[in-house]
Amino acid sequence: MSDLEELVMANNHFEGPIPMEFCKLNHSPQFLDLSANNISGSFPSCFSSSILSHVYLSRNKPKGPITSFFNSSCWVTLDLSNNHLTGSIPNWIGTLFTLSYLLLKNNHFEGGIPVQLCKLNGLSLIDVSNNNLSGTIPPCLMITTLNDSSHAYFGIPYQYGNYRSFSADVPIEVTMKTISYFYKGRVLTYLSGIDLSCNKLTGEIPHQFQYLRDIIVLKFSHNSLIGPIPPALSDLSQIESLDRSHNYLSGNIPSQLLGLHFLSFFSVAYNNLSGTTPQRTGQFATFEESSYEGNPFLCGELLPKNCSSDGSSSLMPKNATNEGFIDMKVF
């Protein structure tokens, strides 16, 4: 099948490596989906000269680092999530200028997030969660929504080099509001996000993220981030899921966040935040104590600590009463 252009063999029980005979195809498939099998070993060296556009190899058993064999000028999707890959995220990924979806979650990658990813102006989704990444978050990471660009993928016409759209419709797994959902087709053109959760990242949240005005998901949870929550995050006007829990963030929760009218999941739990929780208005009226718990110096209406007139926490629990006194608000 030397002219094969699409190879979709997902959700089976294939095992062993991808055979080297793959390299005998005249053009090699532009659409390759071998996800959810038992594929192991290394990947064919011909990947370096292929015209692959969409690669789905998630939920398999390859081990070791990503080699330089992955190198193509027209890739749109690279899904290597839920495998056993090790080593660092290679710098050459920054040369995949047409890449839109980079999914590397649930592996064993270590080292820093390469700044070369900042060269990928067309990225719509970065998910490197559940790895062993360390260092600081590159402030230059940029995300775009395909819906706002002149390009489109997944069945919508798009021209770049020899690329053409295909009929195959493969879902992409994205964690929203602590639950994983699968998105595919035209819906993907409206989805954008950065998920860096469950790593060992340090440093502060870059204030440059305020320019990601169309981003939908932003997750930094379960890291070792420090410093304040940038008030400029209130510029993320389209954000729906904002999770910065389980870090070492300090300072107040900026009141400017009340202007995020599409926010449906918000968590700053288990940090070192202090002061008063945001006023229960707009979207923030829908959040419960779990969004703020684990911050000993945080006080507010939902928490067991009252706030004094200066905004600091009081040691008296809300339900504490003196003899002969009824707190009418609690009643």
TrEMBL record:
It comes from Gossypium stocksii. It is a single-pass membrane protein. Its main location: membrane. Pfam families: LRR_1, LRR_8. Belongs to the RLP family. It is found in: Membrane. Keywords: Glycoprotein, Leucine-rich repeat, Membrane, Receptor, Repeat, Transmembrane, Transmembrane helix. One of its GO terms (cellular component) is membrane. This is Leucine-rich repeat-containing N-terminal plant-type domain-containing protein. InterPro entries: Leu-rich_rpt, LRR_dom_sf, RLP_Defense_Trigger.
